[in-house]
């Protein structure tokens, strides 16, 4: 399974920054056609994005296209989709129909280009009140979507919230997205960016909070955010060692007909063992990245 701890944004029209992003230790790069690119430059930036992706084969390169209801979205998708692309980031998704339509467009492009249908990943960003209200339907749309993401900046703007350092005002939205993802069998979601670039402690607290809410990673806007976020979403050596100990002890007990044991003062049963196995799977995925 691929690792989705850190997605680093890079402006699609800034070749040097885009190229540098692919040399960093993020799990994926998002070349941006939306907020980072001026309106007048959007059409010309599509070709630059494709060229950057072609120059970095074998690396996970996504493109954030413009929102469905803009004049740019359709031509963005047509221009950037091909075997050089890992996936699309679709912003401001508010209805299942939008995801279904983009899935259909991608399928037709894939057929036309001789690609396997479904090869291109599709990650919707839920970042409006309407999107959060409809997130269960979006998650249940039966498309190629494997994980959702959250955009706190646009969400707090849309809802007229004040985006505080504590982020308590977005707890509900985060929980709704995590619940919808789990209920509809998607992977854990990916959380919003942290806009206070110099506040690394705040970034770590934000990442730890969403990790404990069931998220698997965060969107990043600066290279300095990669290592702290990777660290939060990577099991520690102590956690891995304890997980190995739990699994080994439980398997030995299970062979003797026991379904619950005590280990180092902890009560261990099937849910705890399943979580330990998940930790070990995550660790192996990260090592094999």
Would you mind describing this structure in some detail?
This protein is of the alpha/beta class. Helix content is 45%, strand content 13%. The termini are close together.
Output the strand order for the largest sheet: 6-5-4-3-2-1-8-7
Which stretches are low in confidence, meaning pLDDT under 50 for 5 or more residues running?
none
Helicity range = 40-55%
Average of per-residue pLDDT values: 95
Question: How are the SSEs ordered, and which strands pair?
Answer:
Blueprint: E1 6-11, H1 15-21, E2 28-32, H2 42-54, E3 61-64, H3 73-80, E4 87-90, H4 96-112, E5 121-126, H5 129-133, H6 135-139, E6 149-150, H7 152-158, H8 171-183, E7 190-191, H9 200-211, E8 217-220, H10 226-232, H11 237-255, E9 261-263, E10 266-268, H12 270-287
Parallel strand pairs: 1-2, 1-8, 2-3, 3-4, 4-5, 5-6, 7-8
Antiparallel strand pairs: 9-10
What are the key terms here?
289 residues, alpha/beta, 8-stranded parallel β-sheet, two-stranded antiparallel sheet, globular
Write a brief caption for the model.
The chain has 289 residues and is of the alpha/beta class.
